[in-house]
Design goal:
Helix content is about 20%, strand content about 30%. With about 200 residues, the chain is an alpha+beta fold.
Length: about 200
């Protein structure tokens, strides 16, 4: 795959990210516990595996537009190798599927470069998440945000603990309550603890 084909895949992934994820927060319920993941426009570039001279929001703004990303804005080096970016782009367009299908929650994932509190995986790829911080590094809330997107070495044996997700709920990030069910593992009656139910208001 040449760079122009890779940029086209980045564009397609950005279109899906905008359609399904950007500006939304998802509530994952597992083992009577929850994790909330916020999808920001500034997170997209980090998930592509490419290096750029643009700021994260600028990269995403260019990527959403057809022919918006220029070849000179997409770069590679030892920490952003071309072959890994190419592999990621085969899957990144399907990232939204971890918000509306059967997935597992992995906790305390250790990689060579970092430790991540939570990962969401369908065993084709894993979305690794960490604290939601502002540009100064201050913690914003208890939600998590996407930090990394991995497609290599995804198997159950790689994780210390895996938890089956029972429900996934969705809301606009600025909304108070989760108003949509995007996934339900056969439990239609919302048999949830009170502290989880108070976050949800299905219309």
């Amino acid at each position: 795959m040449g760079k122009s084909a890779l940029i086209k895949k980045i564009h397609n992934a950005a279109v899906n990210y905008q359609k399904y994820l950007a500006g939304r927060t998802f509530l994952y319920v597992y083992d009577d516990s929850v994790v909330e993941i916020v999808f920001k426009s500034s997170s997209f570039q980090h998930l592509t595996g490419v290096k750029t001279n643009l700021k994260a929001k600028g990269f995403y703004a260019h990527a959403k537009k057809k022919n918006g990303l220029r070849p000179g804005e997409v770069m590679f080096d030892k920490t952003h190798p071309y072959d890994l970016a190419e592999k990621k782009m085969d899957y990144l367009g399907d990232l939204y599927k971890v918000t509306c299908s059967d997935v597992m929650i992995a906790t305390d994932i250790v990689t060579i470069s970092a430790v991540y509190k939570v990962g969401v995986t369908n065993f084709r790829f894993i979305l690794l998440c960490g604290p939601n911080r502002d540009t100064t590094g201050q913690l914003i809330d208890d939600c998590l945000v996407p930090y990394s997107f991995r497609v290599e070495d995804i198997s159950a044996s790689r994780f210390e603990e895996l938890h089956e997700v029972q429900y996934i709920f969705s809301k606009g990030t600025n909304e108070q309550y989760y108003s949509q069910i995007t996934y339900c593992a056969g439990r239609e009656n919302l048999d949830l603890p009170a502290q989880i139910k108070e976050k949800i208001k299905i219309s």
